[in-house]
Structure formats: structure tokens, C-alpha cells
Model the fold of this input.
Amino acid sequence: MLVVFCPFAAGYFLSFFFRNVNAVISRDLAREFDLGPADLGFLTSTYLLAFAAIQLPLGVLLDRYGPRRVVSALLCVAASGALLFAFARDFTMLAVGRALIGLGVSAGLMGAIKAFTLWFPLSRLATLNGLYLAIGGIGGLSATAPAEAFLEAAGWRQLFMTLVFLSAAAAALVFFVVPEKPLPGRGETLRSQVAGFGRIFSSLAFWRIAAPLVACHACYQALQGLWLAPWLYDVAGLERPGVAQLLFVTAAAYTAGSIFFGIAGDRLPRMTIYKLGLALSVAMFALLSMGVTEHLPAILALYGFCTISAAIAYPLFTALFAAEMTGRVNTASNVLMFSCSFAFQWGIGVVLRLYAVVDGRYAPQGYAAAFVGLAVLQLAALLWILPMRETRVAPALQPPRL
Done:
């Protein structure tokens, strides 16, 4: 198990670190490159845009060539992106470097899920996913207070040079340690594999399960990856150490929630846990959208803990489609989630730009306008899935329509 789990986990740790580190270095980048809120939102979300753009081809690649070769090759791309970001001299170099990083870590979760379905029974999938997501959560934790400490000592450019070497090492670990295993559906034509997306996207069951995953987790990524830190500065009135501590609290809760919901997803009705977890997540996000700052550590801890319940969608998807389609069905949901993450992260910056900036702080009214809109979207997705019951079908090419 460890020779499959640990190498992929190393890359996934880096994926989350890359995803969230801009929240800590956002003010350094804004000051050095004279970036406004829309610029900062777009820059950070280029990671998400590239991540989303590759998801559908990635699903075919994973099902066709296997996770070992695909993930190791892409991690080399992440290393090149980190190198470009470290030596950036203008906004364009930053954006291209950030996009290459997003492309390079795009198979971090999907590759592992594909590997887990090859090596382990479905009854253990939620637990494995939960433990794996916890490793990503630790990567997110490392991008908060620990990254802040590194920045104080060495600066953001040296941080990214370190990430270049770590990404290359993770690529080597995946390629040379993970064993190969025959892929289900071998011999299927490329045309047939691509046509599989039509069967996925025509399934109403897929859309109903995917909607809350996409809306709720995309909002979390937009916040934890960038906008929660400025919100803590501008609305909660905290200074840099307090901001780093609360980002750490949120990421730590996310990590704990990964383990809890992973284990619960293999022992309790998955659909019920999925709905309850996301309902609590939406409630906490609604409090943030209303500018509530009392008991903020508790609100953020519960928000981070419950948001990761969205990952239960992946074993729910796996039960709907044949084993040879695992890569495609999960990347189909991922392209939606990361497209929305890009739109939300950039869109929050666009909304903030509509309001006056006072003493370098964005307007609380701007945050409220952006966050309330996202809260309504999450609530709509949750209401759509509430009547749905869990469905499990025998492996077949055609999923059920609900």
C-alpha cells in the first residue's frame, strides 16, 4: 500500500502548498509588482484555469496510460513553472509560471484516485481518499504560518526555488517507486474513450452529485487560496501574524475533516454524510459573507472541517460508472470545479475593484457583495441534491439517469 500511497501523496502535498501559498505572499507580490485586486485575483487563479483546462485530456491520459507515467511527467512541468515564477520580472512571467504550476499538479488527486481504484477495493476508497486529502491538507497547513516563517528568513523567491527541487524529487519518486498494474479497458480506442465523456455529462445523477462539490469546494479554494487572508486584514482587522494563524486553523481543520469524512464515508451512508457536511459548510460560509467576526476561529475551523466532505462525491461517482472510466468521471467533475474556482477567485477581485480602496484595504461592502452571491450559489446546489438517494450500479458503460 505504501509504495502506491506515499509517492502520490508527496506530489499532492506540493499541489496544496502551491494552491494556497499566494494567500501568504499576496501582499509581497502586490507591493513588488504593483498589482491591484483584479490583477492579484487573476494571477492566483491562473493556477486554477490551467488546472481546469487539462482535466478532460487528463482523464483520457490516466485511463489510457496509467497514473504513474502521467503524474510523474506533469510534476516535471510543475517544477519548470516554479522556476519561472521564482525568476519572474513582470506580471506576465508570474502568470505563465503560475499556470505551468497548475498544469503540473493537475493530476495530484485524480492520478491517486485512479491508482487506488486499480490497487484497492471500492469499500476502502473513501478512507484512502480521506487520508490522502489529509496529506494535501498538511500541504495547505505548510503554506500558512510555516511559509510565513520561511518568508521572513529567505523571501518568496527562495521559497519557490526550494519548491523547484521538491517538485522534481516528487516526480522521481512517483516514476521509480510506484509499480505498474494492467489497466481495465485496455485496447479501447481513443475515440471510444473520448466518447465516454458524453455518457458522463449526459447523466443527471452525475450533475446532481457534482453541483455541491463544485460550488462549495470552489468557494473554499477561492478563499483559502487567496481571499480569506485579505478578508481577515480588511474586515476582521487582523495583522499579519493573526492572519497566518487563522489560515493555519482553517487548513488544520480541513486536514482533520479529510480523515473524519474519509473514514465516515466507508462506514456510514455516503450520501447522508455528503449532504450534512456540506450543509454545515454552507452555513459557516454564510456567516463569513455577513461579515461575522465574533468567534472567528471556531467559524473558520468548522468551515474548513466540513468543506472537505465534498470529496465524498468521488466514491459516489465511482459507484455510478465502470472501472475503466474512473479517470474520466473524476476529471469531468474536476474541470467543473476548477473552472468555477478560477471564476470565483478572479470574480471576487473584480467585485472588490468596484469599491473604493481606503488606506490599502478593500471595502467590506465589496467582500459582502461577492461572498453573498457565492453563498446563494452554494445553497442552490445543496437544495438540488437534498432529495437524491445514493445509487450504486454494476459496472457498465451506461450510468443511470435520475
The mean pLDDT is 88. The longest helix spans residues 204-234. The two ends are 36 Å apart (CA to CA). DSSP finds 18 helices and no strands in the chain.
